[in-house]
Amino acid sequence: MPFTALAADLDARRATHLYRQRRIVQGPQGAQIDVDGRRLANFCSNDYLGLANHPDIVAAAQAGAARWGVGSGASHLVCGHTAAHEAMETRLAAFVGKPAALSLATGYMANLAAVTALVGRGDAIFADKLNHASLNDACQLSNAAFKRFAHNDLEQLERLLATTDARRRLIVVDAVFSMDGDCAPLAEIIRLAERYDAWVYADDAHGFGVLGEGRGSAVGIDSPRLIYMATLGKAAGVAGAFIAAEPVVIDYLVNTARPYIYTTAAPALLAEAVLVSVDLIEREGWRRERLNEHIATLRAALVSTPAQLLPSHTPIQPLLVADSAVALALADGLRDAGHWVAAIRPPTVPTPRLRICLSAAHMAADVAKLGADLAGLLNGHVK
After folding, report:
1. Which letter, b or e, does each residue of 272-296 get, where b requires 16 or more Cβ atoms within 10 Å of its Cβ?
2. pLDDT of 18-43, one tens digit each?
3. Residues 76, 81, 147, 234: which is the catalytic one?
4. Which residue among 57, 127, 192, 241 is buried most deeply as judged by most CB within 10 Å?
């Protein structure tokens, strides 16, 4: 049977602690979450500002459904682009300081759309080795030469740029790296792009709403070479993504980006929800202040442990461990103590880890208890 090989592969994954399975959530996202019949403190979610179940955003989505219906009917270029989509794109562009923006249904789709439209055969991409899988897939599908540099290694990036004869050059980076929690040196990368006539495509899925007073990792960078992407399902608490850039770039994507052209537009009700979310991000700076307090609390709690906590000032706090079995054991121990923390294993990352995600929705006591319980487990599990 053709399924025998699939079953054998799954058995091998189980034997090496790499098997994955879904858990069933029985309520909305929040600091406390019902999962598989248990109430747990949620340290898995990318809902960094606690907006995913905000009553004002929920009300905006409900009003949007009443006005626009649920389905958008067609692609943006046919009859699916509503006044709500247009207003959202205008608001997002202004918020991140770019002249134009384009909305897409997911961040994965945005990355595929932009990279494959902007470069192809005869062109070259220069990509950080720790970029998200969606960026790597986009780079491979583009048919451009795909050159990777060591994580945040600007010297290697410059050597690659200095020796290319490609027609178009595109530097592709995560602005905040989703599994390490650290940031790309965007200002320095932009300077290299200007020196070597390149574009910079920055995926700020985990920086938008959190960094730069909510405006993202590229705040203060005023360069037409920057093509900025952010997702709306993390700190913004809704769904979708947008690309912000010069008008000519956005117009080019509208005309050439296949994942944008050949898919049904996201529901307009989500655009209405995003408009309210951006207002909250802009207005409620206390959410970012609380988040920074939680980060400091957790890191302080783990100082006296043998933990290898990566140097991150973002809500993503990764803790490296010896192997996948240890990662799973720690995650199980935390679940027994009432916390839900994700164990991230290869091939998603080269080194197994716990990926602890903090949110403004957490109370100080939530974070303190996680720190204390994790410290106790680490002293027993990590050598």
Report:
1. bbbbbbbebbeebeebbebbbebbe
2. 898 888 889 899 999 999 889 999 99
3. 234
4. 241
